[in-house]
Amino acid sequence: MSAVPEELVTKLFGSIDSYKKTMVERLRAWVEIPSVSCQASHRPDVFKMMYQAQKEFDALGAKTWIEKNPKGIEMTPDGEEVEYPPIILGLYPAEPNPEHKTLLLYGHLDVQPAQMSDGWDYEPFKLTEVGDKLYGRGSTDDKAPVLGWLIALEKMKELGIELPLNLKFCFEGMEESGSVGLNELIFEQNPEFFNTGIDATCISDNYWLGTEKPCITYGLRGIAYFGLTVECASKDLHSGVFGGCVHEAMTDLIQVMSSLVDCRGKILIDGVYDLVDEVTPEEEALYKSIDFCPEAFRKQVGAEKLIHDSKEKLLQHRWRFPTLSLHGIEGAFYEPGEKTVIPRRVIGKFSIRLVPDMDPVKLTTGQDSY
CA of 74: how far to CAs of 85, 174, 181, 201, 349, in Å? Predict the structure, then answer.
């Protein structure tokens, strides 16, 4: 694989810089598609986003195709059947160069829910420019990174710059909902695509250490997601009539969820930390030279105070220690106004971020996976 000459790289960057206004407008069009994968009402928008991306990559000259989601149909809690979105696979160039290495490029085109009441300053599905910043759901996670690859490839093609490697694409629409169907696609439905001729994988969905210095991430924490169901009656109850007479599902659920993790982030479930490798002195020393400012990080997230004060402890708990986060309660009343109903059934949602050498099967069942 030959390197692209420096003068062509400079020319490429200049071309991309001059294209900024159009890039923003293209991103605006993508952000305005509310491709929220976890909400059945927005599932058509996820399909729309997937097909829009495929159309633009095809216009580049890539060879793309749609893989039907192996999971097929989802049954919503309200009994509605909705189809899981497809997964886009592709090649670029359409006829790979056998002399080149091959990079698998992964990205996702679905997003998390967002509304103004969540604390947004601007309409989340309208890309808003404020100074040199862009605000909109998906503008970083993960529509802009995917679009960034597309635009860079378009500009290389315009300038006649040969891509010094082959690309394989995998773009999904269920990442924010557990990547439903992706595992089955990789290992069962189309293993040949993923197991043949791939030299490296790039995930276009990550963060920098701070706001100024780029970084290359070579590992990610995994995730185990859980739903904890508590039911107290066969129907919702009025608190003025039945309050104090039954064990309330919400009260019991909150009691259980509060026993999972403390206010300093320590996981309280017995045995979890036994699955984690101890920090060696050699590893501890690696953190000291990393360019990371805890105070800048605190301001970036908008927190008054962080759990850990030192750079080393912050990075270790961000990267190499498991964490448990509480995410929500399904079945509970959350809209504005008052409602005095005791819900009959609630589901608490939480996840544990997994770190190297943690066995997810042993974590969830207590049994080794091998």
Answer: 10, 12, 11, 29, 19
> Could you tell me if 155 and 262 lie in one domain?
no
Residues 170 and 74 reside in one and the same domain = yes
CATH code for the domain of 259: 3.30.70.360
List residues with catalytic annotation.
110, 175
Q: Return the DSSP state at 333.
A: -
The phi, psi pair for 189, rounded to 5°, reads -80, -40
Flag residues of the chain having pLDDT under 50. none
CA distances in angstroms from 26 to 19, 59, 130, 357, listed in the order given: 11, 14, 17, 41
168: domain range?
A: 6-203
pLDDT value, residue 369: 65
Taking the C-alpha atoms of residue 205 and residue 223, their distance in angstroms, rounded to an integer, is 15
In one-letter notation, the amino acid at residue 32 is E
- pLDDT digit string, tens, across residues 63-90: 999 999 999 999 887 788 999 999 999 9
How far apart CA 40 and CA 312 sit, in angstroms, is: 42
Same domain, 175 and 248: no
Tell me how far apart the alpha carbons of residues 244 and 251 are, in angstroms, rounded to a whole number: 11
Domain count, the chain: 2
CB 110, CB 174: distance < 8 Å: yes
Locate tokens 């070579």: which residue?
218
pLDDT value at residue 75: 87
Question: Which among 157, 205, 194 is positioned nearest to 61, based on CA atoms?
Answer: 157
